[in-house]
Design a protein that fits this description.
about 375 residues, alpha/beta, five-stranded mixed beta sheet, two-stranded antiparallel sheet
Amino acid sequence: MYSSNLPTWVSSKPSNSTKNHFFYQFNQNPFLQFSNRLTPKSISRSPSPFTQIHCRLRELRKRIETVKSTQKFTEAMMLVAAARIKRAQEAVINGRPFTEGLVEFLYTINDSLQCEDVDCPLTVIRHVKKVALVVITGDRGVCGSFNNAVIKKAESRVSELKGIGLDYTVISVGKKGNSYFRRKDDVLVDRFVEGGGFPTAKEAQMIADDVFSLFISEGVDKVELVYTKFVSLVKSNPVIRTLLPLSVKGEVVDVNGNCVDGMEDELFMLTTKGGKLVVERDKVRVEGGRISPLMQFEQDPVQILDAMMPLYLNSQILRALQESLASELAARMNAMSNATDNAIELKKNLSIVYNRERQAKVTSEILEIVAGADALA
């Protein structure tokens, strides 16, 4: 028997179809509550006596799945970068002794031949009117601030050249740098070079040919490399290195006698004068070992320099490409490692919130069912 003090629309015995629809709706969505504001007219208008609660469970489930997918992606990228970094690091370490020894030998030879009448086009020091910047970036993203740091270094060098009234041109190497400089209408770009996997001597030869033709034709008077120097797996520094001319004194000036060397050719030291910070510049000179007086050259010194200067260009550009790739892979490995850790932490926090929300919803439904059973008893 139903209680007589209950409303007629509650005390009236529901039909079998209404009960079946009631349990069907509850089984489809258990996170529903009985509405006390429903009237017999509203029941007649709407076949379902339930209103849905706006909960966050579905959104939380979707977000947890998204975070899981992101974690798998970042973890895979980290493992790929870790597998490739070993080969790139070995290439950098094995190539440094040769390039450094070659530079030291060329500086020594050039210094010894200054008193003789030797004409090598790549060692001629002219008054600088135009500078070529070879900017080396990565081909892919998801590597932290690696590409932005190189581009920022190149932009600062361009601003410095503009400040002293010199023209410039850019040779962009790498897809990220190419896409950036294509959007910059105020930056003069001579050529775009696409990278392809690990650096090869063929790729370095192609860039060296462009640099050689620009310098020999006096299209530019100075060539500089802008790349990221590999220090360790957790550290890399964007640097500027002079490629041409092979200056003995380590100083190249413009028509007004102002030094136009970059950061790699000058040593900056912060000191204090009168309580203010100032910058002192000391000239840097590459010191090489002395040539033995017993050493004799079978060939003409001009032929030796002409034969070794292309090797110098190729080795320096190849070294810059290798160091840039090693720095890129190290930056990507660290960035993906941090992203994976963040994804794990975020998934853990979302799971805690989801479990609490689900427990609260289950508890609320149990209380509503118990209260409904007591009311019908």
